[in-house]
Design goal:
By secondary structure, this protein is α/β, with parallel strands linked by helices. The protein is built from eleven helices and twelve strands. It binds pyridoxal-5'-phosphate (PLP).
Length: 377
Amino acid sequence: MSTPEQGLGDSTRCVRAGVAPGAPGEPIMPGPVLAAPYHLSADEGSESDFYARNSNPTWRGLELALSQLEGEGSPEVGAAVFGTGMSAITVLMRTVLRPGDVLVMPSDGYYLARAYAAEKLVPQGIEVREVDTPAMVEAVAGARLVLAESPSNPGLDVVDLRALSAACRRAGALLAVDNTTATPLGQLPLQLGADVVVASGTKALSGHSDLLMGYLATADAELLGQVYRERTMSGVVLGPFEAWLAHRSIGSAALRLDRQGTNAAALAELLVRHPAVTDVRWPGLADDPAHAVAATQMSRFGGLVRGVLPSAEAVHALVAASELTTLATSFGGLHTTIDRRARWGDDVAPGFFRLSCGIEDTDDLVRDLTQALDSLR
Ligand SMILES: Cc1ncc(COP(=O)(O)O)c(C=O)c1O
């Protein structure tokens, strides 16, 4: 469980999160301890790291870091790491939902979570209700689990998490928030009243586009125990080397997110002003429909911006004309990337694109995308 480090800034907390106090002659971060010690002791009741699928010291360091970041100020919060964000989400669904239950999830959220619900949960007699993100507050009656995503991917819409958690409490529903796009440095759903956070750490939190990782965080010790059990039995585990790499990467998360946010602000303004682009959304834009709510619950607005060009070809022409961006579907990394979402089946226009701002210099990105957009005319 977490040890809050109150009063410290985000970067100070990130470089210290889950890291043992330094000792002379020892590395600042432990090396990748990998699986576990090979030997059992003769005391048969005493083993904790007897098999790496159950637990291992490298996971525990990362889980402590995630508990500290998601549970800021709340030592009861614990975390479980997984091989991917999808495994965190599906383990939660399998742990909580039974036939006859109702699951409410965003119609504009991550497509694979919706596909899992439709293909695996509906045939088991679980009712799945898809609702637009801002409207979720009015749609929780009768739900067992509400899985919100704010800002949603790729719509970048926002739901009022305080109002949603109050509605879930009244309805007796468990509220889980997918915190992938915001990260705990942009938003703390547990403090806003959510019961559970799930997230992909593959994106901005680890931030180097070089590993897959997911996690769940909650102050509900009983639920966390059930989640650990499901992880152990279903085997959806994180490799210890990825765990170490993710923990190492968290140290720079606040710096990366600050630069990504600065770049998102500049590029969102550029896209809004450019005649080739419509429907630009970034929760940090003062006139974005989600800004008023986002400003009450987010401390950073993130590095994702969306917009619409006239056609699929225009998106590809934009990337071809840009020297600093590439096509990629993951997001949150060091490099600025663009994804045309209709190719994955999202219910959006063919020219809908999601821009993931990297950590390049802002002026370079503005110059590059200005010339690339101008070349479309
Ligand atoms: C909002 C959201 N949640 C969950 C996931 C799944 O994460 P992973 O790719 O680590 O399984 C993604 C992946 O893009 C996502 O965008």
